[in-house]
Fold:
Amino acid sequence: MDIMIRPAERRDVEAMVELLGTLFSIEADFAFDPDRQRRGLALLIGSGADRVLVAEFEGRVIGMCSVQTLISTAEGGRVGLVEDVVVAQEVRGKGIGQRLLDEIERWAAETGLTRLQLLADRANEPALAFYDRLGWQRTALVGLRKMPRDED
Ligand SMILES: CC(C)(COP(=O)(O)OP(=O)(O)OC[C@H]1O[C@@H](n2cnc3c(N)ncnc32)[C@H](O)[C@@H]1OP(=O)(O)O)[C@@H](O)C(=O)NCCC(=O)NCCS
Structure:
């Protein structure tokens, strides 16, 4: 397959929203809300510090992933949080997810990030097998979250 991995552009947003719909239907912690996903993607694509990639095949966006930069006191420098890793169902298992993450790693190294990290749903066995295959290590951390209170 002649796949192109490239930075996402605004014209890709609707296809990316569709891919996020697939992803959030798998992940128990997230609900698909196309308007929120459009807003989030617009912020990410417009950000100079972060990277959003798409995989394109025959003019169609069939995969995506993003990395956002954070500062880690543990690392004493910048690190990257990888999110939104998804490949369209009909083209999985063809190396596209790997190419997306390879490009994220290449960009992270070039940008001087010293660690990449991500959160995966513990029940998502196929994704965990994929990350294992790509050399990602499981950590002892547990993901926690809290929504800040609306003050009005
Ligand atoms: C996880 C996902 C992104 C992987 O993308 P993909 O394009 O199908 O994966 P690739 O073809 O690049 O696979 C890369 C390697 O991982 C392995 N792999 C991929 N999926 C696997 C699975 N379900 N079980 C075991 N190994 C798997 C491949 O065999 C390949 O290794 P190989 O080179 O030795 O053959 C894709 O399956 C997907 O979109 N899943 C739904 C969304 C999701 O769960 N995202 C992750 C959220 S944390």
